[in-house]
C-alpha cells in the first residue's frame, strides 16, 4: 500500500513516503497581502484577551479558542468582515473555521492537494486501494468532496475503500465522524498497530456514521 503524507495545504506540500523529500508547489507565491492583514489582525489580538496570531509560510491565522467564547466569536465575525473589505482587490481569501479566522492565497485548498495526489497515483499506475481522510472544520469539506469525486474516476481498475471522517458531530460530506481529537489519535494508533502485526485487541473506539442527505 502506498502511504502519502500531506503537509499544510496552503502551500500545497506533499511527500510520497516518510523517507522522501517534501514537494512544494509555487501556488500562491504573491503574498504581499500579508502586509495588509498582519496589522489588522494585530488590532484584534490586542482587543481580544486570549487571542493570538499564527504566522505560516503562506497564510496568517487569528486564533480565539482561549478567548471568552461569546466575545471571541463576535470579534471573529467582525474581523472576517474587516478583512474581506480590505482584501477585496487582493489575491487572497478569508475563511472562518473552528475558532479561527484564516487568510490564504486564492486558488489553494485541501481539495486541490488531495486531487493532485490521487491523480498522480492513478497516472503512475499505483491506484489507491484505501483512502483515509480526517478533518475538523469547513475547509476540510473541499477535501472530502474531492476524494469522493476522484475515486469515481472510470480509469480506476477497482474503486478504493473510502474512510472520510469529520471530527465532531455536524453536517458534513464525510460519511463518518469521531467525537474528538483523542479518538483520532486512538484510530491512528490502532491503524499503525494493525499494519505491523495483527493485534489481539485494538483500542476501544467509537466511529459513528450518519446520512447527511
UniProtKB/TrEMBL annotation:
A GO term for molecular function: trehalose-phosphatase activity
Superkingdom to which the source organism belongs: Eukaryota
Pfam families in UniProt: Trehalose_PPase
Needed cofactors: a divalent metal cation
InterPro entries in alphabetical order: Glyco_trans_20, HAD-like_sf, HAD_sf, Trehalose_PPase
Pathway: Glycan biosynthesis; trehalose biosynthesis
Keywords: Hydrolase
A GO biological-process term: trehalose biosynthetic process
Entry EC no(s): 3.1.3.12
GO CC term (a single one): cytosol
Primary enzyme class: hydrolase
NCBIfam families for this protein: T6PP
Its biological purpose: Removes the phosphate from trehalose 6-phosphate to produce free trehalose.
Family: In the N-terminal section; belongs to the glycosyltransferase 20 family. In the C-terminal section; belongs to the trehalose phosphatase family.
Name this polypeptide is given: Trehalose 6-phosphate phosphatase
